[in-house]
Design brief:
Length: 446
């Protein structure tokens, strides 16, 4: 397996020859992560130990859902939704064309509190056969709870309670929470969010796998991609270091850290050198929600105790015509992490009337020229760039990328000396929102 991290354009701030001490810190972080003694690290061994029976049940349930409905609505927020949305946006169309199997339309709800959004959703689905999948580890999060109650009400009116309950699938804690109580009482088909895995690390558990399987995407391939990555990254020997980085290896010993470790080391080194913002960039629109998941993963894992890198994302070439200006000439407080899809799925040839420079070229070649041009222009003004090479957008590599970034994020959290698995700050807005709501109720009563 090749190294996914390419540092050819990392610039002068990243001199791995002088980061020898930091390499040692990454090795310690790797040891801590792989010791298996830290809370919420169940995802680390998951690709080796996942429950095969449960996966079979997920596949059977997905098959049943596909025959039951035309519209499948996934209700959840944050870690209980973004992984599935990322996979479905990246892969659903491709897998559908490959298999030729019909799959339901997939909608998402419960990730905002917009009356307009939910009204329009109800309008779109009103004459369709519907199934719901409600996902919440705590079972008490406001946004999915409201969306679930609105959509459940719609189902009750459409099918009656008994039939509606056969169309509701719940993924929640094994024993606690109001959603678990309701699911047991009403007899929904349920799957469990593992105790030792937090929301943003749960893509490869039923949280992500059930909706992804309903979309016709091969979850076994996804788990296999993660397993192969995990095998290399958890135990070593690490991936071969590319020739142009070998000399860096001899002094700083980067051969002793894995690709996720190298990414963690580079990101944290850049933060320590005044680069506070990481811009995830992609040239294939299917990666949009993958970067949404990345923003959540890194933002929620690292942004605490007064530290962390602020994650942002830009879609190129669209955003080159807006934020491109800032990247080229604005305040240099950021670095770029480029998601480079090496073999895009499809291509076409630019017609003759597009002008001499472009006519007859493959569109993907033009897209690649845009990436190379941007990298050269940004290198000229000293923007540090990390390129992540993704061989292709398939279930296998999607699973591998998920595991890669989860590992890298956990390691950089340890390097930053924060707990990458909690999110105490998320609670504050909920408390304040409840306070405001109570005030509103009093006002309404008056
Ligand atoms: O990563 C996380 O832990 C969060 O983003 C949660 O997934 C999110 O807040 C939703 O929580 P729950 O699944 O309890 O509804």
């Amino acid at each position: 397996m090749k190294r996914m991290v390419n540092l050819d354009f990392a610039g002068s701030l990243i001199d791995l020859k002088v980061l020898a001490g930091d390499v040692q810190k990454v090795r310690e972080a790797q040891k801590k992560l792989y010791a298996g003694t830290e809370d919420f690290t169940g995802w680390v061994k998951l690709p080796f130990t996942y429950d095969k029976e449960e996966t079979k049940r997920i596949l059977e349930t997905a098959e049943r859902i596909r025959t039951q409905c035309e519209v499948f609505i996934v209700i959840g927020i944050g870690g209980s939704y973004l992984g599935a949305r990322a996979a479905i946006s990246a892969l659903k169309q491709r897998e559908k064309e490959k298999s030729g199997k019909p799959v339901p339309e997939i909608y998402f709800a419960g990730q905002n509190l917009s009356g307009t959004y939910h009204r329009e959703l109800l309008e779109k689905i009103k004459d369709r056969e519907i199934c719901l999948c409600v996902i919440s580890k705590s079972g008490t999060t406001t946004e999915p709870s409201i969306a679930f109650s609105v959509l459940k009400d719609t189902l009750y009116k459409k099918y009656g309670k008994e039939e509606a309950n056969k169309r509701i699938y719940a993924i929640t804690d094994a024993a606690k929470g109001t959603l678990r109580e309701e699911a047991d009482r009403e007899g929904y088909v349920t799957f469990t969010v593992p105790d030792d895995i937090g929301g943003r690390y749960s893509v490869l558990t039923p949280v992500g796998l059930l909706p992804i399987a309903v979309a016709g995407i091969d979850i076994l391939d996804m788990l296999e991609g993660a397993r192969v990555g995990a095998k290399v990254w958890t135990a070593g020997p690490w991936e071969a270091v590319p020739e142009n980085q070998e000399d860096m290896g001899s002094e700083s010993d980067i051969t002793q850290i894995s690709s996720p470790g190298l990414l963690a080391l580079t990101r944290v080194s850049l933060l320590n050198r005044g680069k506070f913002i990481e811009v995830f960039e992609y040239y294939e629109p299917q990666l949009q929600y993958f970067t949404e998941w990345l923003k959540q993963l890194f933002g929620e894992s690292e942004g605490k105790d007064g530290t962390g890198i602020f994650p942002a994302s830009l879609q190129f070439s669209a955003d080159l015509h807006s934020m491109g200006q800032f990247l080229q000439e604005g305040k240099q407080i950021f670095f770029e992490t480029i998601l480079n899809l090496v073999h895009p799925d499809k291509d076409l040839i630019v017609p003759d009337d597009a002008g001499e420079l472009l006519a007859g070229k493959s569109l993907n070649a033009v897209n690649r020229a845009a990436m190379e041009g941007v990298m050269a222009a940004h290198a000229a003004v000293g923007v540090p760039m990390i390129r992540i090479d993704i061989p292709e957008l398939s279930p296998y590599y999607f699973g591998q990328m998920v595991y890669f970034f989860e590992t890298s994020c956990a390691l950089s959290g340890y390097l930053l000396e924060v707990n990458p698995f909690d999110q105490p700050g998320v609670e504050s807005y909920k408390k304040e929102m409840r306070r405001v709501l109570k005030g509103d109720n009093n006002e309404a009563k008056r």
